[in-house]
Design brief:
about 25% strand; elongated; about 190 residues; Endo/exonuclease/phosphatase; four-stranded mixed sheet
Length: about 190
C-alpha cells in the first residue's frame, strides 16, 4: 500500500470565485485523513446555510461522489454588516478522518465572523456521518415497506395484532440488505 498523507489546512475562497471539481480533487484525493476548514463562501442547506449558491452545489455534489464529509456549526457564524442580508454559515470543514468531529460557533464576539472551534474525539466513528450529503428518499422507503408489509391489516383491533405488526415492521427494517438501503438513499 502506498504511503498517503494526513493533511490539515485553512481555506479562504473569495465570494465571487468559483470552486472547481478538479481543485476539490487536488485537495481531497491524495490524503487518507483530511481536514480543510475555513471560509469556503459555499452555501447549502446541508450544512445549515439559508440558501444555496453555485459553490455550495459544486461542493455538495463533490462530497457526495467522494469519500469525505462536510461539517459545520448548526448556527450562523457570519453576520453581514448590511441588515438586508441574513446571518449565515460560511465557515465549514471538509473532513475525512475516523475520528468524530464537532464544530461549535463561539458566539458573542464583536466581528462579522464569529470564530468556530473544531473538536476531534479520540474514539473512532463506527457508522457513516449523517452529514454525508445523502438523504433517505422517504417516498421510496414508504413504498418499500408498503410492499413488504402488504399483508398487514390496516385495522388493528387487539394488542396482539399491534405487537405482531410492530414486530414485522422491526424485522423488515432490521433485515434490509445494504443494496436495498442504497436504493433508498439519494442526493
Amino acid at each position: 500500500m502506498e504511503n498517503r498523507e494526513r493533511i490539515t489546512t485553512a481555506v479562504y475562497k473569495p465570494p465571487n470565485s468559483a470552486i472547481e471539481p478538479n481543485d476539490l480533487d487536488l485537495l481531497t484525493n491524495h490524503n487518507d485523513w483530511l481536514i480543510a476548514a475555513g471560509d469556503f463562501n459555499s452555501k447549502h442547506p446541508m450544512w445549515h446555510s439559508y440558501s444555496t449558491n453555485r459553490a455550495g452545489r459544486t461542493l455538495f455534489k463533490h462530497a457526495h461522489l467522494n469519500d469525505y464529509s462536510i461539517v459545520a456549526p448548526d448556527t450562523p457564524a457570519y453576520f453581514p454588516p448590511n441588515t438586508r442580508y441574513r446571518p449565515d454559515v460560511l465557515d465549514i470543514a471538509i473532513v475525512r478522518t475516523p475520528l468524530q468531529v464537532r464544530i461549535t460557533n463561539l458566539a458573542g464576539l464583536s466581528s462579522e465572523h464569529n470564530p468556530i472551534i473544531m473538536e476531534l474525539t479520540s474514539s473512532a466513528i463506527t457508522t457513516p456521518s449523517p452529514n454525508s450529503g445523502r438523504y433517505i428518499n422517504w417516498r421510496k422507503f414508504t413504498n418499500y415497506l408498503s410492499q413488504d408489509l402488504s399483508d398487514t391489516s390496516q385495522n388493528l383491533n387487539t394488542t396482539a395484532e399491534i405487537e405482531e405488526t410492530i414486530s414485522k415492521l422491526t424485522n423488515t427494517v432490521t433485515n434490509m440488505s445494504s443494496s436495498t438501503m442504497m436504493t433508498l438513499i439519494s442526493i
